[in-house]
Amino acid sequence: MNNLYDIRISKFWAIFWLVISIFLAFGNIAVGVLSLIIPAYYYDLSKNCKYSYDDEKLIIQYGIFNKVQTVIPLYRIINITVQANIFGFGYIKISDKERSLILQYVVNPRSEMDKLTDKWNNAKTQNIRNEVI
Fold it and tell me: In a designed cystine with 76, which of 51, 96, 98, 129 is the match (CB 3.0 to 4.6 A)?
């Protein structure tokens, strides 16, 4: 069995909006309580979204009430691009033969892309299903 490598998700926006909510709470309690919805959303997103991969597949899991799991065989990936910001997180865009998926709020997306690209190149050279690439 292959070991799964997890891709870490940033909690930056949850912490950022929590601090803003605390400052708003000093001015008006109702506004402060309502503004807690935003950090709760980003915290929940970081807890209920998981990206992982091994030598053969990329697994994307997300959802609160409806858990959705998408498995993409690495040999089917056509392109991997990354965008990072100055805070140390960003996103990785995965394009396969059918669709494009975005892995959001990834911590150190460039290094994660490098690791994923190595696995992707190995899967392409092995061409597990003998498909034409």
Answer: 96
Burial class (CB in 10 A: 0-12, 13-18, 19+), 128: middle
Residue 121's DSSP bridge partners are none
Which residues, listed in sequence order, are joined to residue 59 by a DSSP beta bridge?
52, 71
Stated as kind and residue range, the H or E segment containing 118 is: helix 109-126
Whole-prediction pTM value?
0.74
DSSP for 27-94 reads: H-HHHHHHHTHHHHHHHHHHHS-EEEE-SSEEEEEE-SSS-EEEEEEGGGEEEEEEEE-TTSEEEEEE
Quote the DSSP letter at residue 113: H
Cα angle 79, 84, 89; round to 5:
115
Give residues with Cβ within 8 angstroms of 90, minimum separation 6: 82, 83, 84, 106, 109
